[in-house]
């Protein structure tokens, strides 16, 4: 088997191979773009070739920025289009491609890799851990009243400003600008490079699929939030809601919940613990469903990754980290002072022992180390290590990722 990078001449073969791996057929091109693979960076794609030279496997990576706790923006590779033809599975090709790709990412000087997992059982063995989750919130229209706000400018209070209804094909620049402001302050959020918007490569509201956009403007008329939605068979489905603060989110939710001639409103891609359900006058009206993992994180350089994010508690903790897939094992002293971390090799006794995938799960603050201790994934060696780890790894707000890639 040979694994090699692709060139422009390989694009058709790459696209055909990854679709065949999943049993799909490539979509028919449409006016205005909208093909997901048009955003691929061809020099970051890999082909696995059988002995006779036929392409039998694929993998690719996008260049993104990831927002870490403390609003640190760091480069990250978004792994995608990973597949092996059914005729060539169970031969070690996937493992070989993932190992080849991780080596390449390290050679680029990157310390983090992320992906969206098609199946939850695949990528843990390659060192990826689920770091964010997403859900749907379903609300019957006749039970959609929001409770009366008690405070003058809280998450419950109406946002100052107005809402304008636009069509998707007429407000691309607004969506791009508002999303970019949002993602820079939201831990776990990924950038959406301009070429994605320009090529309409992705899911709504990036894609050319027809959508209405409720744009929220502040008191000065500047856009500070939007909700992308469609209506079908009496159900109003919000693809995504982007807001620069909770009051703007509430205003957009109020707009969707108050829409006439619909029987149900579905908010897709909201954090499972989002406060909107608590804002309903009838708490039981909000049904959280479809809770699932979303962004998976893989650390390639433990000291580099741990010193890149912001921290909100001082302390020292020794981490014994095993990386079975890459055959690596090291012990690190993590020291946090005044929001900054130092991470160096040590021979001190560990406070916690953990797999690299579990470090990926707790890295953004979305999973408490104590949860993984209770699940049997992380081993605690000192009585206060778990409490300290929970305090250290927490983020200023729950991490969340909306971007599909």
Structural overview:
- Residues 1-202 form the N-acetyltransferase domain.
- Homohexamer; trimer of dimers.
- Keywords: Acyltransferase, Transferase.
- Acetyl-CoA binds at residues 82-84, 90-95, 118-119.
- This is GNAT family N-acetyltransferase.
- The protein is α+β, with helices and mostly antiparallel strands.
- The chain has three domains: 2-110, Aminopeptidase (3-Layer(aba) Sandwich); 134-292, Aminopeptidase, CATH 3.40.630.30; 302-393, SCP2 sterol-binding domain (Nonspecific Lipid-transfer Protein, Chain A, 2-Layer Sandwich).
- Helices cover 22% and strands 32% of the residues.
- It has ten helices and 19 strands.
- The protein has helices at 11-22, 93-107, 172-183, 194-199, 246-257, 276-279, 302-308, 356-363, 369-374, 385-393; strands at residues 2-5, 46-49, 55-68, 72-84, 112-116, 129-130, 133-140, 162-167, 212-217, 223-232, 235-243, 264-270, 287-293, 295-299, 315-323, 328-337, 340-345, 352-355, 379-380.
- It has a seven-stranded mixed beta sheet. A seven-stranded mixed beta sheet has the order 8-9-10-11-12-7-13, with helices on both faces.
């Amino acid at each position: 088997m040979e694994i090699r990078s692709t060139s422009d001449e390989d694009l058709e073969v790459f696209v055909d191979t990854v679709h065949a791996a999943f049993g799909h057929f490539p979509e028919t091109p449409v006016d205005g773009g909208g093909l997901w693979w048009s955003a691929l960076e061809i020099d970051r794609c890999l082909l696995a070739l059988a002995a006779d030279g036929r392409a039998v496997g694929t993998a690719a990576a996008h260049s993104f920025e990831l927002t870490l706790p403390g609003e640190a923006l760091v480069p990250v590779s978004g792994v995608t289009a990973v597949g092996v033809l059914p005729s060539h599975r169970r031969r070690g090709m996937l493992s070989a491609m993932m190992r080849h790709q991780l080596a390449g990412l390290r050679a680029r000087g990157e310390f983090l890799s992320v992906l969206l997992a098609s199946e939850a059982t695949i990528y843990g063995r390659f060192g990826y851990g689920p770091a964010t989750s997403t859900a749907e919130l379903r609300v019957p229209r006749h039970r959609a009243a929001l409770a009366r706000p008690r405070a003058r400018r809280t998450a419950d209070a109406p946002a100052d400003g107005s809402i304008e209804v636009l069509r998707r094909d007429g407000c691309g620049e607004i969506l791009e600008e508002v999303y970019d402001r949002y993602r820079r302050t939201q831990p776990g959020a990924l950038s959406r490079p301009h070429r994605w918007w320009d090529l309409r490569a992705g899911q709504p509201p990036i894609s050319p699929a027809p959508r209405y956009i409720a744009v929220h403007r502040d008191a000065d008329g500047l856009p500070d939030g939007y909700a992308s939605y469609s209506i079908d068979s009496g159900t109003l489905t919000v693809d995504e809601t982007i807001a620069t603060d909770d009051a703007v989110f509430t205003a957009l939710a109020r707009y969707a919940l108050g829409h006439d001639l619909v029987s149900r409103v579905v908010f897709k891609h909201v954090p499972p613990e989002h406060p909107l359900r608590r804002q309903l006058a009838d708490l039981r009206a909000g049904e959280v469903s479809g809770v699932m993992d979303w962004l998976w994180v893989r650390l390639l350089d433990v000291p580099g990754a741990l010193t890149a994010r912001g921290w909100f508690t001082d302390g020292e903790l020794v981490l014994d980290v095993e990386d079975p897939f890459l055959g690596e094992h090291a012990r690190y002293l993590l020291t946090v002072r005044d929001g900054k971390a130092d991470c160096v090799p040590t021979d001190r006794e560990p406070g916690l022992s953990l797999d690299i995938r579990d470090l990926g799960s707790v890295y953004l603050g979305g999973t408490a180390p104590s949860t993984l201790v209770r699940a049997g994934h992380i081993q605690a060696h000192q009585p206060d290590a778990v409490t300290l780890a929970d305090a250290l790894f927490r983020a200023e707000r729950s991490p969340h990722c909306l971007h599909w890639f």
